[in-house]
């Protein structure tokens, strides 16, 4: 069907109306092919007209000449419980020069689910009136999947939010860069954001979105905080939500989880880039041994066509926690310590074992050898082996970020820094300069540590350091795996830092290929020092530096035995015992160099 101009009036509208439909199922879509070609061909709009609503809902728009070609349009209608019609309006202002046509109109998946003779098993729900058998995951998700509303009855309203009456029990984070905006109908900017909500599918329904236009800047974040939930234990806790990411400059939507209120949490899921003009359902399975909170983070793209929408958030199998998440106070090593110590007679130069109150020398703290029965002398230290699984940083911390976090006016969002990452969370094309698999598990689900070069500028550095290490033995070395692949890789350095001196122990620059590479750095005997990994950013974002499986090998200091050395051992001047095979081997095994003395 095509349009002919048959009048000389200034403003002309050609309308094409559909029959009236009684209702539509939750997965209903409409597709058609259209042709809009010519110098002054004008605009076209598809409207949804629902009984009981005075104002039509815009479902689709074409603004201008789109070339001498047929193009396909797909419109998501979703569940419409009331009678409705569709109308296609073509508008010409004054001079009309072109051809507009439509063909192959198809409705798909628009019927209600068919009735079933039986519906058994814990994974199914039998609808009350329609007798349809649906997946139990579709129950209490704010969508009428049955067609009779029975799957949305007897649901806990505190576990659901469709934003029709505000934010429910969700809250805006006060420490982010902008807020999620509650709106009905289309967002203010054309060619980005939803035209309608997901709950009602009409202009009268509400949803949340982030505005990517100025004054907001690239990588500004808007964070929405859930209520606090009990740990699910052996039960299954499910988070369902619908998101809309349409626009050429859409950036990122993330979901995070936290068990402590003053941290940003760990990443559960994210999606990057333009996903089309549609609402998409996402289901996440949540596990936790502690009370937890969910954070939904929208990140602004590099331009005004980057609006992101959010609607119909629901939890299934989860229970609300009656209380707030704890906060965590950190020592210089970044780990929590008890507020009170057991009764003890230790001096200021001694460390108090946390359980027994036993005293040990302060030099025995953080020396890779547990001297307290509860190992508390090694609890606030760097771990001997770190694979970053379970998003554990093993005591490594970023000194610069810690200083910035003490200043509330400074945001650390866009600075060059180390972050935990995994291949499963990469966006398209990012695997060219960031590892697709970790070294530990060799899978996309495994975690590693990387310096994200999409932040910062050329020459910026990012440091991650151990807490102070009191003492190491003569054979101590650090072994780690690094991944440096990309066209603009900077460098990676291993530094040793004391109170008044920083020395470079190892360095590597430039792309090293698309694989994990082993590195080994000898440390030997050192005291009161930190190891620092320093990444330097290259000229562009195409060069992330990553590390994994960091191990301190043979680093515990020598131990004076409570016995004389055997005939197979050499007695060092400081009373240590070492194997005689280690004499005169150019290695200071005794720690006082007496095994390398020319008088031996």
Automatic annotation (TrEMBL):
Domain MAM span(s) in chain numbering: 1-112, 159-320, 384-557
PROSITE patterns: LDLRA_1 (PS01209), LDLRA_2 (PS50068), MAM_2 (PS50060)
Keywords: Disulfide bond, Repeat
Pfam families, per database record: Ldl_recept_a, MAM
Cystine pairs: 140-155, 366-381, 565-577, 572-590
SUPFAM superfamilies with a match to the protein in the record: Concanavalin A-like lectins/glucanases, LDL receptor-like module
One GO CC term, this protein: membrane
The protein, known as: MALR1 protein
